[in-house]
Amino acid sequence: MKNYLIKYLILFLLGLNLFSFEIYSQETGIPDPPVFQYITIDLTTGHTLLTWDRSPSPEVTGYIIFLEQNNAWMPVDTVKHPAATFYEYDLSKAVYYPESYVISAYDSSFQPGGRESQLTDRHTTIFTSAVFDSCTGRIDVNWTPYIGWADSLESYILYAEINGDSLYSPESLDYLTKTILNNRNRGEFNGIFNSN
Known about the structure:
The chain is mainly β. It folds into three domains: 1-29; 35-124, Sandwich (Immunoglobulin-like), CATH 2.60.40.10; 128-195. Helices cover 13% and strands 41% of the residues. It is built from one helix and 13 strands. The chain has one helix at residues 2-27; strands at 35-41, 48-53, 60-69, 72-79, 86-89, 100-107, 123-124, 128-133, 138-143, 156-162, 168-173, 178-180, 189-195. The strands form four sheets. Strands 4-3-6-7 form a four-stranded antiparallel β-sheet, with no helix packed on it. The chain has a three-stranded antiparallel β-sheet with strand order 1-2-5, with no helix packed on it. The longest helix has 26 residues, at 2-27. The chain starts with a helix and ends with a strand.
């Protein structure tokens, strides 16, 4: 009976060791990246807002936000929560020029250069400029393209506010640059983009 117990105790301990090894080997893989959904700018604060779907990897404990600077991805912050799907970057300069971002996921053993997912696809903010010609009453609106949705982006819609009235969409705009003609209200003009 004593030999029988020792035999099963040894098998049991070996089984735990194999089980532990199996769990360890599963966790040594690189986590899957999140799915970067979109990026936008809060017009009241100028902050850039990033939205993504969580990484499907269960070992993920957080996300790293990267900003493109001088053709290199520079980490700007770490979101230390596995269920996070949103980030607000308050040092953004996207009201002055377009900015590109990517995201990666990391797991519980993360250390610099450690287990970090591949980077998501790039998403780039829209930068808009408008020039008003007071002689003709013409406003030329130009913008950089939104980068991040590949071929699924069909058009842009320009929303305008004139003299403090509520927002309206004067027309659906084609892919790069359009002009709004004959705005003779001579009031304040503010535009907000919403992509289709």
